[in-house]
UniProtKB/TrEMBL annotation:
Record lineage: Eukaryota, Metazoa, Ecdysozoa, Arthropoda, Hexapoda
SUPFAM superfamilies, sorted: FAD-linked reductases, C-terminal domain (SSF54373), FAD/NAD(P)-binding domain (SSF51905)
Required cofactor names: FAD
Membrane spanning stretches: 15-35, 56-74
Name listed for the protein in its UniProt record: Glucose-methanol-choline oxidoreductase N-terminal domain-containing protein
Pfam families on file: GMC_oxred_C, GMC_oxred_N
Species: Rhamnusium bicolor
Length: 597
């Protein structure tokens, strides 16, 4: 079948009908058999739209963390009809199980992107490319992630305020309720609280957490004693055991996650006038399968930091030089796809222990463990993708009010499943795995992953072709600024503590094959290690930058309207001008929550 490409640059033209401005979107309705995986009840007020209306008030493109919240909030106005379009299917039974997060990656729920080779990072991955999982599913990347609930540092949002970017009223154009200008961190905090249903009793008594929101937050009901040692290690280093989403960030804590009664939590809410269409792409058609829908008020793109710029550029909104390469007519020349930022971490730092307390695949018997999970919502299957502890610390290059390093602590490492899954998800080469990790397969270990919170390096997303079925080019550009790798090396120097000695903890010291010419443990060795297993933590942001009109890199204004294109907004992590200091799922939901209704 010959593919007919129909660019939104043609279809996204305003047409006047009885004084109303409508947006036209061409759709492909591909693979609709996948809607059989829809887990919503047939009588649910949320309707999977098998037959589309000709018009909707709002069309939201992308059902991820931000898009699902945007659609839910817009549909609270009973007279509005809202259509949510998602390229992937609904979640399946496996996606509910926190411990199986890695098994969702490289599946049909994952876009399975790869970064471009640079020679500076990901050197231990096949072809020198990092795997970049992105959710192709209702719920987006929140269905694939490790469910960690982190808001970022208040200094991040102070910076946005200084740039004049927190005066965001978003959808106030369409409501009769007068709104005040919002320009303080307190107004960001209230949207975090609005989205949250926190079920940790010791946290809900503080003014920093909320109950009754769309997103349930709590600790996993199961943990190993290693995470207690992790918190004790923080005290040794002078960091308190504290709520990292509270008044101050620097400190250690048992991780909070977006889970409910041991299962992955979802931010999607049932509404009477909220329709969704699964397995739908929004910028091309097959012959005979074209459908057109119109938006009376706005089209909102919430497809994430990779797919949003791809959709925009395919639609003629992007750098004119880039569009010219693919003979795409320019609707608006904007810096779409630039300013890509991600939290890069040092993977594979492994500590061996003598006591049988870690997560080792051969230790757990499948049937009783599954029954414990299914019946009681407890046991090892509730662990947050294996991550038990989080910490925010500063090197001498940072400070206590704005830490520059985050630690993820897990009672397992690359060797813990004997190469069955983790090595595949990371794309580790056979040489690296067989040399370093196979000798300790299924042995008790724990890992500490230092994460760079505010990278100076910037990457980009560009089109490989104007074929919408073809994945875009992604250049993470890790370590193009040498300051980034220097900061991560410093993080390793503060990573050892006495609290783990009761488990016989010691560093696994088989050197990486490509780093063995350096003295093990030296700064040069650690830099080589970091460049070898350079791990994404699945936090890409910034590719449709929010900024003032005088900023040449800005794609959207402080109200998230696309510059020079009326009736079009972007509401997802791509609008973030700088990356928040922490996991980005909660900030993406906060961006969606700021829709004013």
């Amino acid at each position: 079948m010959v593919l007919e490409t129909l660019l939104i640059s043609t279809a996204l033209k305003t047409i006047g009908i009885v004084g109303k401005t409508l947006w036209v979107i061409p759709l492909i309705l591909a693979g609709l058999s996948l809607v059989n995986y829809n887990r919503f009840d047939p009588e649910s007020p949320v309707k999977e739209a098998r037959m589309l209306y000709r018009e909707y008030d709002f069309i939201v493109v992308g059902g991820g963390s931000a898009g699902a919240v945007v659609a839910s909030r817009l549909s609270e106005i009973p007279q509005w009809k809202v259509l949510l379009l998602e390229a992937g299917p609904d979640e399946n039974e496996i996606s509910d199980v926190p411990s199986l997060a890695a098994y969702l990656q490289l599946s049909k729920l994952d876009w399975s992107y790869k970064t471009e080779y640079t020679g500076r990072a990901c050197l231990g991955m096949k072809n020198g490319q990092c795997n970049w999982p992105r959710g192709k599913v209702l719920g987006g990347s929140s269905v694939l992630n490790y469910m960690l609930y982190v808001r970022g540092n208040k200094r991040d949002y102070d910076l946005w305020e200084e740039l004049g970017l927190l005066q965001v009223k978003f959808m106030s154009d369409y409501t009769k309720v007068p709104l005040c200008l919002e320009s303080s961190i307190l107004n960001v905090l209230k949207y975090f609280i609005k989205s949250e249903d926190n079920r940790n009793p010791y946290l809900t008594k503080t003014p920093y957490h909320g109950k009754g929101g769309l997103l349930t937050v709590q600790e996993s009901p199961w943990r190993t004693p290693l995470v207690v040692a992790f918190v004790e290690a923080g005290l040794e280093l002078g960091y308190p055991n504290r709520d990292i989403n509270g008044a101050d960030q620097a400190g250690f804590m048992i991780a909070q996650g977006t889970i409910r009664r041991g299962k992955r939590s979802c931010s999607l809410q049932n509404r009477k006038d909220y329709f969704f269409r699964l397995s739908t792409l929004t910028y091309f058609t097959f012959p005979g399968r074209k459908q057109v829908v119109m938006a009376r008020k706005e089209v909102i793109i919430s497809a994430g930091a990779i797919n949003t710029p791809q959709i925009m550029m395919l639609s003629g909104i992007g750098p004119k030089q880039e569009l010219a390469k693919h003979r795409i007519p320019v609707l608006k020349d904007l810096a779409v796809g630039e300013n890509l930022q991600d939290h890069v971490g040092m993977g594979g730092l492994t500590f061996r222990i003598d006591k049988p307390v870690s997560i080792v695949q051969d230790r757990f018997q499948a049937f009783p463990m599954t029954m414990q999970y299914v019946i009681n919502g407890r046991g090892p299957m509730t662990t947050l993708g294996g991550v038990e502890g989080l910490a925010f610390v500063n090197t001498y290059l940072g400070n206590r009010s704005w830490p520059d390093i985050q630690f993820h602590m897990a009672p397992a490492s690359i060797n813990s499943d004997a190469g069955a899954r983790v090595r595949k998800v990371l794309g580790i080469t056979d040489e690296l795995y067989n040399t370093v990790y196979r000798p300790i397969a299924n042995k008790d270990v724990w890992t500490l992953m230092p994460l760079l919170l505010r990278p100076r390096s910037r990457g980009w997303v560009r089109l490989k072709s104007k074929n919408p079925f073809e994945a875009p080019l992604i250049n993470a550009n890790y370590f193009s600024d040498s300051f980034d790798v220097k900061t991560l090396v410093e993080a390793i120097n503060i990573s050892e503590a006495k609290a783990f000695r009761k488990f016989g903890s010691r560093m696994h010291r088989i050197p990486f094959p490509n780093c063995k010419h350096h003295e093990f443990g030296s700064d040069k060795y650690w830099e080589c290690h970091i460049r070898t297993i350079s791990m994404t933590i699945y936090h890409p942001v910034g590719t449709c930058k929010m900024g003032p009109s005088w900023d040449n890199e800005a794609v959207v204004d402080p109200r998230l309207r696309v510059y020079g294109v009326s009736g079009l907004r972007v509401i997802d992590a791509s609008i973030m001008p700088t990356i928040p200091s922490g996991n980005t799922n909660a900030p993406a939901i906060m961006v969606g929550e700021r829709v004013q209704i």
